[in-house]
Amino acid sequence: MNEELDRIAHLIGQGRPDLAATEAAAARLRFPQAAEPARLHGIALLQLGGLDNAIAALETASALDPQSIETLCNLASALLARSDFRAALLVMQSAQLLAPDHPAVLNGLGNARRANGDAAGAKHAYLAATRAAPNHLGAWLNLAAVELALGNSADCERIARMILRQMPHAQASLLLAQALVTLDRLAEAAEVCVAGSRAAPDDANLAYQLGQIADEQKNPALAAEAHTRALTLNPHLSGALAQLVFIKRQLCEWTALDAWSDRLRAAVNAGASDVAPFGFLAEPATAAEQLQCATHFANRLGRAGDPLRGRDSLAGARRSIAAPLRIGFASNGFGNHPTGLLTVAFFEALRQHEVEFHLFASAPADGSPIQQRLRKAASEWHDIASLPPRTMAERIAAADIEILVDLRVWGGGNISEALALRPAPVQINWLAYPGTSGASWIDYMIADRHVLPARLHTAVSEQVALLPRCFQPSDPGRAVGNPPPRGECGLPDTGTVYACFNNSYKLDPRSVQRMLRILAAVPGSVLWLLSGPGTSDANLRAVASAAGIDPQRLVFMPKQPHLDYLARYRHADLFLDTAIYNAHTTASDAIWAGCPVLTTPGQTFAARVAGSLNHHLGLAELNVDDDERFVEAAIRIGTVRSVRDALHARLAQLRGSSDLFDMDGFALDFIALLGRMANRYRNGHPPASLLPDRA
Q1: Model-level pTM?
Q2: Which CATH number applies to 486-657?
Q3: Is 528 strand, coil or helix?
Q4: DSSP at 559
Q5: What's the CATH number of domain 326-467, 2.60.120.10, 3.40.50.11380, 2.30.29.150, 3.40.630.30?
Q6: Nearest to 671 by CA among 424, 446, 339, 336
Q7: Going edge to edge, which strands form the sheet with 403-406?
Q8: β-strand 356-361 against 380-383: which pairing, if any?
Q9: How do residues 556-596 score in pLDDT, each as one tens digit?
């Protein structure tokens, strides 16, 4: 029998679990009372993905030989793979009773503790394993990973460097790079990825990590190269695919883009969980596909956060019915950032109504005038930048917040990982991320009837809470000064100026083609765009040239300080919105500065924001049904001076009379809506859809 068992073990080691499983099953029939054939059968089945059958075989092996440490470790691994975390922990605790100092037992115990939310206990077990067997590479790697998860990036760096001094190792290089990223040492992290890839040229994860770092460094060319390499090594690495497609959109590189986009949407429909929902908003996807993407991503983050999840809820005690609201807002945009610019006047209005609210800032202070106003308005300001998720969540929970509003969701800022730990009993998705979170830890999404009509509610994971006005606040205190002369802005002295200052990833081919049709029909007109990254400007000019448009009629504005940028709208006759992903803050800016926005409201939240602004402003006629009407309206406004002048005059009048920029009224409606949420929670009722009393 020993020779037969050696052959089965050899097949497993050679990566042939299919043959090993067949031979192990035959050996079990011949030796039904022997534990080892059952154990090897379980391992082979585990490698084949048959978790239930693998666990049954390993349980049989353990019953035949209850003292086998090896079998218990294998069984615990299989249980962890099936997410039976508690059962795995019980198995490893039994193994520890048999062999308290066995390094494999201690390492397996660490894995089980970590899966059960005991990160500190996992660290203790891994440390014990490394002391029992100083050369136990797996224990050292697990220790480095749990240190990183606990926010101890320097300790992760130390362990990873220790391993790499002894040998090249792809996982150690990856952990080191990830630790350096959290320490904001991006250049070093990139060097580690490059060196790691030289030692392990077939490792797709290192190439993917390099792509992510290059993206953070605003180096789209390197990011695209790295993600392309990652996909070559692992065509199923959907995260790299998503990043590559998003970079292509940023660079306006549209060759074969439809095929790339179709591949990405297919990956989401197949269950890919590493596709970033924010970038996916720029795809020509349905609201249902956006929900799929967000849900898969949120579930993956939730599973990754399990090692940090405490056994007890972080949220405080339930408040009494009569207690005042205690609200928290979390964002990485509380400064000179679109989120800060939109919300500052709203927060100042909240303060005037004596509402207690806390601002949790997950980005370093920028000292801007907007941030100073935000700090002054807040009841309390909390700096949570650079904190690991568990600590961030504990800081929020310590403030005893009843309702926590996530202003970023999948828009960045490392907040979602903290909110997944439930630091507040009621948690809300609002404003900066124009879509559903897909997250079980977010209870409500705040919207309005136009941006989220009833037909889209089924594509939202949260309960829908609607304001009776536009969901987007603004700052009516923004000054719109006088711009430099047209010539200094790169504009011709005469002719219609169409503007679109959206980020380049929103400039989808459909939107640009209809803009070029408008230029072709309006002699002397120009299209004024925000200058994009890398080769994006040149790529857009090439598209214009291919369409028969003089590429110099595309004028690119370098990024400007906010007040200078606002002033430049005085030169713009009409803002041409993008179709798939609208102007959001940019649309509000244009309207406030006196430039009307023409849009085609679509079938997703992100495609309906500009339409909501127009609707609540009272200029619903600028919300047109399709591209043909879009082009017709833009041509008429651009060629008939009286039509254009009348539109601008009407916009100026409505800007002062509509409720779009009434932040005192916005604050009262917002308080009332959150009060309804709080009352449901305080009365023991689950979250439910909340519709406005008035349209």
Answers
A1: 0.91
A2: 3.40.50.2000
A3: strand
A4: P
A5: 3.40.50.11380
A6: 446
A7: 380-383, 356-361, 326-331, 403-406, 426-429, 444-448, 463-467
A8: parallel
A9: 999 999 999 999 999 999 999 999 999 999 999 999 999 99
